[in-house]
Design a protein that fits this description.
This protein is an all-alpha fold. The chain contains four helices and no strands.
Length: 96
């Protein structure tokens, strides 16, 4: 097993889980009464908040709406496609 295939096996599920968490975080923004410090919401808030805090300093809320989770879904989806997609870098290296 090569290093690129190991990286693919780790990055694929990791990026998939992160995308899922941020999509769930977007849904949580529709329910401001949901307490992010209580179970089960903290299962989504705790792993995503470290990504959102620095980006919120660069991208303020637009019209009172926090768009940073949407930006992270885009970033992680882009990374997943560039690295692991059909023509992704790690995919192409595994074929060699």
């Amino acid at each position: 097993m090569t290093a690129t295939s190991i990286a693919s096996l780790i990055l694929g599920p990791l990026l998939g889980v992160l995308i899922f968490l941020f999509i769930f975080r977007i849904v949580l923004t529709w329910y401001p009464q949901a307490d992010g410090t209580r179970f089960p919401f903290n299962l989504v808030v705790v792993p995503t908040e470290p990504f959102l805090i620095p980006l919120r300093k660069l991208v303020p809320p637009i019209g009172g709406v926090d768009i940073t989770p949407i930006i992270w879904v885009g970033i992680f989806s882009f990374l997943r496609e560039i690295l692991l997609g059909q023509q992704g870098l790690l995919t192409m290296l595994n074929r060699v």
